[in-house]
Amino acid sequence: LAVSKKGDIVAITSLGDLLKINSKNGKIEWSLNTLGSVLTDVTDFFKSSDIVIIDDSIFFSVQSSFFSCDLNSGYVRWRLNVSSVSAPIINDGNIFVVTENGYFVIINKDSGEIISSTNILKILKKKKQLTKVTGFIMGSGKIYSVTSNGYLITSSAVSGKVVNFKKIGDPITSSPVINDGKLFVYTENSRILGFN
To answer: Which among 23, 18, 29 has a CA at the least distance from the CA of 7?
Structure first.
């Protein structure tokens, strides 16, 4: 669910339909089926990222696809075979996403061209690579990704390359947050860890 500057509501249903709703009268202005199927079993394990609206563009991922759509018409500007584990981050004309299977992807916001794609899990030992990225956040020109087996992996937002990684210990199931120059991670064991 997202709200545009004009107050329009954009939502995605569990059937994969993207809807633009007029917040004044509640009417659906347009809808777009993002799954390309009317079969109900396609949505049994439906996954989507949060929706991000910038100007007149909507950005989000559904199942294994990432979309850029026009806010006014619902027209699909571009679509990629990439998914995001959480809300895409948009900065300086680029989109930053991290996939569940560990790829940090930088995408040109306007064209949809992939600028770089790096498997950030390759920095881990082979056995430790059998994990999932559970969230990410951007700060100070870096992307901080966390994994279900307790790693914090730091990548450059410019090159996409991994610059550091740290074993935190507990499994991590949600995206980290940044506040007042500090990075905070909430673990599955209800621990909050802070990093400078």
So the answer is: 23
